[in-house]
Request: fold
Amino acid sequence: MLGQAVRRFTTSAVRSSSYAEGPGNNLPFSVANKWRLLGMMVLYFGSGFAFPFLVVRHQILKK
Reply:
């Protein structure tokens, strides 16, 4: 009974949404400019990769 109510709510919520159709329109960032997207991805993934090295460097220089 609860599962049917949840299913009805989710399907009606999807049906009543007014999002634009097409690839990339449901993302929280723009994919129109590939060079800006590349730069943002390099910053995002690069910061995650560099973080442990920066922490180790900080700990070494602290002593």
